[in-house]
Amino acid sequence: MEEKDTRVAVISIIVESPDSVNRINEILHDASESVIGRMGLPYREKNISIISVVVDDTQDVVSNISGRLGRLPGVTVKTAYSKK
Fold first, then answer.
1. pLDDT per residue over 27-83, tens digit each?
2. According to the 3-state scheme, what is the secondary structure of the chain?
3. Fewer CB within 10 Å, N- or C-terminus of the chain?
4. Rounded to 5 degrees, what angle do the CA atoms 6, 55, 2 make?
5. Cα 16 to Cα 71: distance, rounded to the nearest angstrom
6. Residue 57, Cα to own-chain centre: how many angstroms?
7. What's the confidence (pLDDT) of residue 2?
């Protein structure tokens, strides 16, 4: 069996629409095999939430997760990849 070429990445999510929260959680649950950990912070003064998700998988899988999240209304996503 061939080993996958994986990379560690941080997916940063800013949530401005509370209506998208359930869908975000569904997408992250679907990707749970790739997720190492996650941290969410409500920023009440700005009425937004910030979520950081650390993943380890192929670049295609990470891009798919980021893309699905980024297409949600009121959600902004940026991803940073490790060099290895």
1. 999 999 999 999 999 999 999 999 999 999 999 999 999 999 999 999 999 999 998
2. CCCCCCEEEEEEEEECCHHHHHHHHHHHHHCCCCEEEEEEEEECCCCEEEEEEEEEECHHHHHHHHHHHHCCCCEEEEEEECCC
3. N
4. 25
5. 13
6. 12
7. 57
d(Cα 19, Cα 78) in Å, to the nearest integer?
A: 20
User: What is residue 83's predicted lDDT score, i.e. its pLDDT?
Assistant: 87
> Domain 7-81 carries which CATH code?
3.30.70.1150
Rounded CA separation 15/69 (Å): 10
